[in-house]
Amino acid sequence: MKQKQQVSHNGSNKRFKPNQKYDKTLDYLNSWMEKKGITWKQSIIVRKDASGHSVFATRDLKEDEIVCTVPKTAILSRKTSPLRDIIDEEELAGGMALTLCLMYEMTLKKKSEWWPYLQSLPQVVDLPMYWDEQALTHLEGTCLDPSTIVEENALLLEDYQSIIKPLFRKHAIFNEGKYMNFESYRRAAGLVASRAFSVDDFHDLSMVPLCDIFNHKSGSENVHMECQAEVCLECGSEDHVEHDAPTHDEHVANVKSISMTTNSDIKCKSELFNVYEDLSNVDLLLKYGYAHENNPFDVVSIKPDVIHNAIHDKKWFDKNRWEYWLSIKNTKLEEEEEENEEEDDGDEEDEELHCEFNAEGKPNHTLLLLLCIMFAKKEQYASWKNVKKLIQHVKSQAVTKQMKEACVIMAKERLSIYKDSLDEDLEGLQDKHLPSRHKWSLIIKVCEKRILHKVVEE
Ligand SMILES: [Zn+2]
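^ N-lysine methyltransferase, sequence as received from the core. Prediction below:
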């Protein structure tokens, strides 16, 4: 999946201009796409400007029109990559498998089957994973703790050193790829984070040419991707899920394609925006390298220790009840009674309860749970030794006046963590020459603080 910063902040379609400049990169991509069987309607056009590629309508489009089709054979995935046997043998999966495949192809340069596509990708998507220490300090106080980025980066390096690098000596195929190093791996990792799609059970995370050119803009989505996700795990066929060996070859032929379809009528000259998941600003920044000033899906998280600081000296605070709340695990709350707790003991330590206020300033389920526990009458609290009963109860619990007051106390405590005030941040944003990293950090802070002020003022 991908994102273009300028586009997402530019509400109008005034950027549309007739194609004045001959774009060699795009031309190269076009003929490659044709060769790969990727088809698109004459009614759409790909344009390139300083911020990258975007897709526009060249005539009015109707709802439910397929605007382009990409055969699954044209995508870059763990199954289409020349590394597929190594990936299987080494049991690599998900982002790591695709990052390795992408890095390999990029380092092959013109020898890569995907080169015309690869050379059309942005050099870098400026994700926080690439920010230096100085830039990361701007995020202090926000829900995106700079130390988590530093930790993630260290993990990426560790994976590279311990899992990826040893493969280069072990498998001869890697002799083909020049300049394979941590930097090229890191670049590939950022592209995978921001542009890859989860295609189906067989291909998993994949780079999908053309589909990844469509930008994203919350609230303006007008196209979506269509693709059968449930396929045979062994051959990728869409005709069956259970693989049947004798008819295998027939099945392989039935690997179909991915298409982009319009959600609504689209006016000529409008940009086409793909539907993406609803992400908070922090997640947008992590994945796409930008944030929205008016993001209806934004949230502010508040850590249990911050909540504790805020409420531990209140009359209604009860230590036993607090500990009971802490003992409830996120996994239980999500009601995914998956029985893999034993496998997951690595997660045990960071299984901190996820408390947050949403864009409307409303407490989430976990926070409401704490409030119910704290303010429940003795008999009612006693009946909640059965967590399921408690969770059921919370679903129908309205936020009482007492609970609201507790939320205000928590929100004020959370606000005290930031170094600057909302007004100072807003003033900072006025600077037209603000470096983008600083700008995104300020937008994140402004949005988080607005949510917290909402909690306090309501
Ligand atoms: Zn099969």
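Residues 311 and 317 are 7 Å apart (CA to CA).
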